[in-house]
């Protein structure tokens, strides 16, 4: 059986498939892994620790000596993604209040739009871009976790986020970054963790979901996923094209929401109680957005790559005939 390759053929499969398996298990057999000990920690309750390990490994891959185009690409994509999500959250909160519009709350908007699926970006960058696009992963991977999402909430005033909460979110990345730059062998040793740990934290994240939540999310969850891919994906494409990068379609690869965004609404609600009433609904919508964006984002990148190639061919023809 060629299970691994089959999973990899699915867009974002290393995250989406374990996530869905975890959700299926929790929906139909909620007590299956509730055995305590190692089993329950690995398959049901250990997402936070596993995600922390993933962030630690990712931090170690950010080379302080790295410079040039990869860092530039990563920074502008990171800023674009977080800024758009934060501004849309502020706008919706200002115009429609805590419960939002079309059933989509500012909590769900910021949680999904500011968070990016780093694994999916890396895969799409490798397929449609070059080494400089792939190299940007280590920078924009910072938005895979809750730090920038919580920073957006705190900076915009949508929630009161204590400094300790922000520090706790970034500490694994920071420690990994320091160790990875002090010793190249540590960086190399931790590198496999940036991919190996994805299905491990994806499954327990999924095990915190129930498909009844996806049904509850309904049309609003689907719309959130579409908005996330179209708005942030096209924005990424636009900034790459305006910057005259060789493969602008790769910019659209930020239009997917990472699996760990599921925990953001509950985390924000735990810090600021005013969000408690809508946290469960926002969680369901973000869960739906994760699945929808994992499907739509690769389609958008592929379409834009073909569009750009066709546009460049016509431009070359006009230049040659001139």
Automatic annotation (TrEMBL):
Query: What are the TM regions of this chain, as residue ranges?
Result: 12-35, 41-59, 71-90, 96-113, 134-155, 161-182, 189-211, 217-240, 247-271, 283-305
Gene Ontology terms: cellular component: membrane
Q: Which GO terms describe its molecular function?
A: 2-keto-3-deoxygluconate:proton symporter activity
Q: What are the alphabetically sorted keywords of the record?
A: Cell membrane, Membrane, Sugar transport, Symport, Transmembrane, Transmembrane helix, Transport
| Recorded family membership | Belongs to the KdgT transporter family.
Q: What is the recorded name of this protein?
A: 2-keto-3-deoxygluconate permease
């Amino acid at each position: 059986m060629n299970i691994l390759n089959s999973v990899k053929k699915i867009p974002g499969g290393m995250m989406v498939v374990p996530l869905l398996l975890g959700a299926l298990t929790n929906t139909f057999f909620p007590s299956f892994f509730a055995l305590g000990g190692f089993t329950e920690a690995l398959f049901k309750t250990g997402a936070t620790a596993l995600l922390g390990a993933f962030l630690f490994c990712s931090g170690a891959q950010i080379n302080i000596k790295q410079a040039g185009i990869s860092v530039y690409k990563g920074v502008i994509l990171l800023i674009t993604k977080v800024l758009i999500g934060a501004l849309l959250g502020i706008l919706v909160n200002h115009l429609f209040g805590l419960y939002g519009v079309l059933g989509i709350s500012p909590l769900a908007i910021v949680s999904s739009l500011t968070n990016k699926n780093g694994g999916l970006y890396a895969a799409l960058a490798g397929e449609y871009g070059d080494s400089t696009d792939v190299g940007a992963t280590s920078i924009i991977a910072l938005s895979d976790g809750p730090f920038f999402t919580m920073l957006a909430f705190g900076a915009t005033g949508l929630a009161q986020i204590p400094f300790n909460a922000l520090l706790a979110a970034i500490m694994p990345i920071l420690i990994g970054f320091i160790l990875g730059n002090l010793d190249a062998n540590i960086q190399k040793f931790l590198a496999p963790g940036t991919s190996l740990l994805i299905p491990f934290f994806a499954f327990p994240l999924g095990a915190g979901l129930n498909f009844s939540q996806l049904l509850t999310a309904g049309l609003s969850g689907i719309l959130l996923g579409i908005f996330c891919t179209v708005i942030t994906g096209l924005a990424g494409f636009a900034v790459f094209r305006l910057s005259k990068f060789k493969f602008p379609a790769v910019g659209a690869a930020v239009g997917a929401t990472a699996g760990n965004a599921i925990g953001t609404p509950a985390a924000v609600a735990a810090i600021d109680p005013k969000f408690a009433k809508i946290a469960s609904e926002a969680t369901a919508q973000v869960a739906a957005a994760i699945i929808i964006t994992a499907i739509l984002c690769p389609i958008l990148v592929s379409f834009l790559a073909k569009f750009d190639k066709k546009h460049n061919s016509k431009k070359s023809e006009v230049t040659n005939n001139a």
